[in-house]
Amino acid sequence: MKFATILTAAMLSFAGVAHANDSYPARPVTIIVGFPPGTATDSVARLLAESFSRSMGGSRFIIDNRAGQGGSIGATAVSKAEPDGYTLGVSASGPLAINPHVYSNLRYNSRTDFTPVGQIVQLPYVLAVSKDAPYKTAAEFIAAAKAKPGIISYGSTGNGTTSHLMMAMLENASKTSFNHIRYRGTAQSMTDILAGRLDATFDTLSGSLPFIQDGSVRALAVSTKKRVALLPDVPTTAEAGYPDVQGGAWLALVGPANLPPDIVIKLSNALSTALKDEKMLENLQKLGTELDPSSPEELKTIMQRDLDRWGEIVKLTGAKAE
Fold this sequence. Notes:
Number of strands: 10
Order of helices and strands: HEHEHEHEHEHEHEHEEHHEH
Shape: globular
Structural class: alpha/beta
Radius of gyration: 21 Å
Number of helices: 11
Helix content: 40-55%
Strand content: 15-25%
Mean pLDDT: 90
Largest sheet: 10 strands, mixed
Distance between the termini: 61 Å
């Protein structure tokens, strides 16, 4: 009798959860972004929030920027949230695949503390300098750095971030050194490039594209395997003589561990719908991103693979948190 009572209670509880998930989302959903407004991650997240707000029953999806520690502060907040679907994250690959190898004090485990929902886009990276810089090519830029080791400056979004590791790979491949200046976001480093206070960045095409297009910044190379459609005249790093300097970042939608499967399916379907919308695709292209959607299972594989891959790169470059 006691067992029957417990079983009935459990079934009613499960039915209540199932009913709650059927109506998901029944209230506003927070999407945490671990980078400042204006970054590529933030811009893509806002496009996604607008799409979800239209397609998922009219509930609002709200962006919450929690910048710091290369995106890890935002990732921590997602990992510690209730797994009810009302706190999600749009994360770059850095917090999930790079930071575990750079920071010793992270409060999350990338392999176990997140529920993958789907990859969104790839972010190509571009080596860029001011239009007034004396170097017109990557070869000239490297030659100038070799002539003055440790003097030519470049900006990144922090120690161990993708922008830092891309330049660290270039330093390693070219056997030279630069002066590393840390910023909170791409907008700040680009401001100093335009003002002549910083020599270079190796950052997202998304953050650099408007300035490249208006001629105030010169692109020297892109880190992709083939040339970027928006910059057909800019060589790849391989074409510039550095085939080992390749990579970039991806952006993905994740939730805390143990997100209910039916909510994952709803979010995955909404993401798939968003990434087929012509206006959405147009806006993503304008941001300099490359569409690269995935299923939850595919994203899980990508996260595990890149966690191992970037671990090797961190070892190679010696990147450490301060």
